[in-house]
Amino acid sequence: MIPQPTAQQALPEQTFTLQPDATIGTDPAARAIANQFATRLRRSTGYPLPVQDGAGTITLSTQGSQAGEAYELHADASGVTITAGTAEGVFRGVTTLRQLLPAKAEATTQQDGPWQVAGTSITDAPRYGYRGVMLDVTRHFFTVDQVKHFIDLVSLYKINRLHLHLSDDQGWRIQVDSWPRLTQYGGSLQVGGGTGGSYTKDEYAELVRYAGEHYVTVVPEIDTPGHTNAALASYPELNADGVAPKLYTETEVGFSTLTVDLDRTYEFLDDVFREVAEQTPAEVVHLGGDEAHSTPHEDYLTFVPKAAQLVVKQGKRVMGWHEIADAPLPAGTVVQYWGTEDEKAQALAVKAVEQGATLVLSPANRSYLDMKYHAETPLGLDWAGLVSVEQSYSWNPATLIPNVPASAIDGVEAPLWTETLDDLAKVEFMVFPRLPGIAELGWSAEDALDWTAYKSRLAEQGPRWDVLGVNFYRAPEIDWA
Ligand code: TNX
């Protein structure tokens, strides 16, 4: 099972077997989760599995005293009960139950039983509240259906944030009614020069809804002041010389910047952050801030507080890459650390915390899912080094950055940049098997983290991914089941 639960006790001689007449009991708060689970299990088992009020053979209850995402799962010969204090907690428990069932339970066509769960009593709660994955939909665009599939896969590992990187040099991917050319023109291409794409408001709302149904919160990123060529190309008025650059379909970074001393820049951002925030149930909006190599540093320090204020004005907290910590930050800012454990990045993380910000950790040499596994990996980049499965798992979020108190860490996020990834099979290849390890670092207690034990639990996920049709990398250091 991944992530490893807080406490688990085997109940010998108490194997549960799902029978054709089984029922799924629920209270109203967990009904949607029960329906979702029943739908999945009906396909593979062929059993009717009616969902009913109150107790069932499998019972989902929100009547527990657990807080937030915590839950308990009890499986014995008579049935399975998942108890939490919230629907979210029940959902996390159901992802555990899915992993306790045979892999073939994930099949979309009818399979032969038996459908057994070894007797167990589990008590579980997360180490961190932020356990994210980032998908870059700018360098290559991914459709709503593709992102939904991505959500299906990551939510099985208790990932609870989907950071969508929605604007960059190569494309603008979210509709903004007051600046329509951002998507009409700025979203038209992608890396390599092929057709890009963008989400209409309805499509984006559908993504947010679907993520919510999987207890994943979407964190939208509008990258500023660098990584803005698509916007600058769409609107000449955003450029210092009033001339729009061409659309860009290659993969250099750091050449574009918003014009810091132009009023129109902030009118633009005010509109963009307002329209994006309106579609955001999350309490944060990410304003990027990374690699602004074409923004003079004094300008950068002027820009960040002004842009941050426009996010705060929308009732949202600011999130941004760690470079923003050089500027004064509003209360409640979340700084995303992407350093490779270098002193400059670490100093910015310390500076962030000194200002009262909290940290989400995405060390590039550990958590970047776009880094190659080894020198011959056909996809991905290697500027942060090669990131083997062991390298991505074997670190401790609490001690990664010296002089940062453990209390300042909100959690972890694994970013997937897509310069080299133009379809879902390639995305899956880079995400699996590394993401489950980052998910475990975010969820499981510090004393549960052990590469040797993790390795054998990871091996057991292989058959599950085969059933789900996931194009995972069969890393040779894992003895795949
Ligand atoms: C750096 S890490 C970037 C991205 C690239 C990525 C490729 C960060 C905040 N910015 O613009 O896509 O490297 O690995």
TrEMBL record:
Domain Beta-hexosaminidase bacterial type N-terminal residue range list: 2-125
Domain of life per record: Bacteria
Reaction equations catalysed: Hydrolysis of terminal non-reducing N-acetyl-D-hexosamine residues in N-acetyl-beta-D-hexosaminides
Database matches in Pfam families: Glyco_hydro_20 (PF00728), Glyco_hydro_20b (PF02838)
InterPro entries on file: Beta_hexosaminidase_sua/sub, GH, Glyco_hydro_20_cat, Hex-like_dom2, HEX_bac_N
Domain Glycoside hydrolase family 20 catalytic: 128-445
E.C. designation(s): 3.2.1.52
Keywords recorded for this protein, A-Z: Glycosidase, Hydrolase
Family: Belongs to the glycosyl hydrolase 20 family.
PANTHER family: BETA-HEXOSAMINIDASE, BETA-N-ACETYLHEXOSAMINIDASE
Protein name: beta-N-acetylhexosaminidase
Species assigned in the record: Kribbella karoonensis
